[in-house]
Specification:
Blueprint lengths: L26 H16 L4 E3 L9 E5 L5 E13 L2 E6 L6 E7 L2 E7 L5 E7 H14 L15 E2 L8 H7 L3
Antiparallel strand pairs: 1-2, 2-3, 3-6, 4-5, 5-8, 6-7
The structure holds nickel (II) ion.
The site of nickel (II) ion has 6 residues, from helix 2.
Amino acid sequence: MPVVRPILTFEHPALREKAKKVTRVDVSIQRLLDDLTETMLDAPGAGLAANQIGVPLRVCVVKGDDKQIWGLVNPELVKKEGAQVGYEGCLSYPGWVGEVERAETVVVKGRNRHGKEIRVKSTGFTARAFQHELDHLDGILFTDRLTSLDTLRRVEELIGEDKEEAVAAASG
Ligand code: NI
């Protein structure tokens, strides 16, 4: 059964290390993908990288706009187009959001839970989540990419009735 794992927060040094490539997609990687999915949905968030739960491997999950969940092993950005600027949060930075510029459309290549190579094209929110998780695997946090430090604020300061939902959707 998948397990909800504790999520490390920003001061943890593991979040600043570059995660290692997976050499073989086996049952331990499948379990890791299942735990990442369970933990992301529980949080709730839009994505989660393995090093956020203390596993230093290049594995992440992303929840798409259409609720589809992508589990990727050794993900790589192979194409990016356009730009979007918007508020973004991080499950390792609970309670905080900031403005980050990302590509509007990305293509990510990686292996699925069966070791098969796949390519995922995404736009908007989902593309933002992919870029956020790929950054995590390189030890980069969204706070490194703020358009300005002045945009970093508490979730409570965001205006709008659906702010909690919006922030959950934008956190990975
Ligand atoms: Ni994050």
